[in-house]
Amino acid sequence: MAGMSPDPFIRLRGVRKVYRSGGAEFLAVSDVTMDVQEGELVSLVGPSGCGKTTVMKILAGLHGADGGTVRIGNANSPFDPTRDIGMVFQQALLLKWRTILDNVLLPAEIVGLPMKAARERACDLLNLVGLAGYEQKYPQQLSGGMQQRTAIARAFIHDPKLILMDEPFGALDALTREQMNLEMLRIWRESGKTIIFVTHSIQEAVFLSSHCAVLTAGPAKMADYFAIDLPFPRDLPLKTTDAFGAYARRIYAKLGLGAA
Question: What pLDDT does residue 259 have?
């Protein structure tokens, strides 16, 4: 399969997950295999209920796999699951009684980072996500897009090696989502982080990714895994090009939604 390499940062081989309840079993993930290099942004795209979030939870260590192998980290970049993961969800999940700066600082407090340095980093991150000057505002004073930018800064505060993003822009309106896609590309390219990005949007997957993993309807199986060889920096007019359309059609075809 495309994307396999000798020493990737993330290696999944034949990953399988079964949920059990009341004596019944439900196969959520049946066979997921892929390699992710350090510094890549890889999208997981597929229909609702196909197991994308389950794969994400396995990567986060929240769920164990029932089969196959999962390895994160390599000789060049050791991985500590207790502090090397940052997460962003569909909802920003900010604490309304904490300022924007204090929301960003929360993971630093939890892992016990020196707070003086953490505050400096938080201010740098808020600048990175375009929120300089909003440090003392509260979440309810910000738009949905600005709240998600805060959540992204929070995920980066403890300098994790892996960022897991589960439909982070799914609750935003179409125009705000387009703007956040542009911001996400800029933040990723400037930070150099490894990012796994779950989405239902084929357009978003093609626009953001260095590689795209296409999952079938549940139980999740890898229908395709391929590089998105579109040049950086990317801008919205890229979506009107034949090359972009070809990648989108490839995903549609793998999902049974049209010919490639």
Answer: 62
Check pLDDT > 90 for residue 171.
Answer: no
Q: Identify the CA nearest to 213 among candidates 203, 225, 205, 201.
A: 225
Nearest to 223 by CA among 243, 250, 194: 250
| pLDDT at res. 165 | 96
Half-sphere exposure of 215 (CA within 13 A, CB side): 33
Strands of 194-199's sheet in order across: 67-72, 10-21, 24-36, 220-227, 211-215, 41-45, 194-199, 162-166, 85-88
Q: Is the pLDDT of residue 50 over 50?
A: yes
Which residue from 20, 18, 41 is spatially nearest to 31, judged by alpha carbons?
A: 18
The domain ranges of the chain are: 92-159
Cis peptide before 219 (omega within 30 of 0): yes
Q: How many helices (H) and strands (E) does the chain have?
A: 7, 9
CA distance 142 to 134: 9
DSSP per-residue codes, 143-182: -HHHHHHHHHHHHHTT--SEEEEESTTTTS-HHHHHHHHH
Q: What is the pLDDT of residues 146-158, one digit of tens each?
A: 999 999 999 999 9
Residue 86 buriedness (CB in 10 A; 0-12 / 13-18 / 19+): buried
- 53-65 pLDDT, tens digit per residue, is 899 999 999 999 9
For the entire predicted model, the pTM comes to 0.91
Nearest to 206 by CA among 241, 174, 173: 241
